[in-house]
Amino acid sequence: MARLAVIGVGRIGGEVAYLAASLGIADELVLFDTAPDLLKAQVLDLKHTGLDIAISTDKHEIRDADLCIFSAGMPRDPSVKTRADLLLANLPATRSCAGMLKGFEGILVTVTNPMDINNYTLCRSTGIPRERCIGFGGQLDSSRFDLALRQRNIPGQPSVMGEHGEHQVPVFSRLDVPVETQTREEILRELQGSSMDVIKGKGGTVFGPALHLARLARMILKDTGEAAICSAVLDGEYGLEGCSLGVPVRVCKEGIREIAEWDLDAWEFDKMADAGQFVASLCTQVVT
Ligand SMILES: NC(=O)C1=CN([C@@H]2O[C@H](COP(=O)(O)OP(=O)(O)OC[C@H]3O[C@@H](n4cnc5c(N)ncnc54)[C@H](O)[C@@H]3O)[C@@H](O)[C@H]2O)C=CC1
Ligand SMILES: O=C([O-])CC(=O)C(=O)O
């Protein structure tokens, strides 16, 4: 039996609960949201699917979940330039999540932006070991990178490391062909703006994040040991610490099994160092 808890069942949290139930990834759901009418509606809508899934709304049961997805808090609208700008607005939700997870022995997946900083904050403030604190965003960024590469007929395996935000690091050196700096910078700029194009058109990103999150939930709950880019609290990997950043990991039911240290080229290495500095400086502001 796999129990999935979701804190914040709005656009992303609601969709991932639905996908996890409909794709047979979870057998039980524990759903929580501070908006009672929305919570009630999400539960009812899920029940109307006729899927055979137990649903609890008792927040005390979150602690007993195998996997908890934290997707509570404010999303961006077009007036919010970067994900990092959501830090203070989402701090109350992050702190309340930390309170609910005292004694939690499962895997925590953080979605709420700024995701890397929130993942680091939750790891430090709950005492949950870093292997069990996974930040979600790298799979989504890598998929967006894939689209940008395919539009330019550039072959290879797409991976985006670094911050889930402005300081993201598309890894060009592992593609099948060399890519010159000017094209790299052009693609990077495109990636930095890609989610805002969706937000402007339909109010928020849903399909991409929810499906990749469901895949991540499957990796964890089904113990697949698959490789993915996820945000991990770093302890010297890539020469960085005091932050959480997107890095190549293997994911299993114990969380992050290993962090791979890829040989980055100079362009990527510098961008990764900038990402580490940026995220670490915000982490020190919120983790006391
Ligand atoms: N890491 C990633 O790749 C992605 C991250 N996000 C982020 O996920 C977060 C959620 O986005 P959406 O679902 O679109 O927003 P939303 O507004 O649809 O849902 C957020 C939900 O959180 C609830 N909430 C607020 N404070 C809460 C608290 N303290 N405890 C429990 N529930 C609380 C709200 O009532 C609301 O239902 C945002 O921060 C957004 O930026 C969104 C897409 C992708
Ligand atoms: O851009 C945003 O605010 C939402 C998000 O993190 C994404 O879709 O990657």
Automatic annotation (TrEMBL):
Keyword set, alphabetical order: NAD, Oxidoreductase, Tricarboxylic acid cycle
Domain of life according to the entry: Archaea
PANTHER family (UniProt xref): L-2-HYDROXYCARBOXYLATE DEHYDROGENASE (NAD(P)(+)), L-LACTATE DEHYDROGENASE
BP GO terms, sorted: lactate metabolic process; tricarboxylic acid cycle
Sites where the protein binds NAD(+): 8-13, 33, 90, 111-113
Main function: Catalyzes the reversible oxidation of malate to oxaloacetate.
Name the UniProt record assigns to this protein: malate dehydrogenase
Reactions the enzyme catalyzes: (S)-malate + NAD(+) = oxaloacetate + NADH + H(+)
Residues in Lactate/malate dehydrogenase N-terminal domain copies: 3-135
Species in which this protein is naturally found: Methanoregula formicica (strain DSM 22288 / NBRC 105244 / SMSP)
Family under the similarity heading: Belongs to the LDH/MDH superfamily.
Domain annotation Lactate/malate dehydrogenase C-terminal: ranges: 140-276
GO molecular function: L-lactate dehydrogenase (NAD+) activity; L-malate dehydrogenase (NAD+) activity
Binding positions (substrate): 76, 83, 113, 144
UniProt EC number: 1.1.1.37
Enzyme class (EC, first level): oxidoreductase
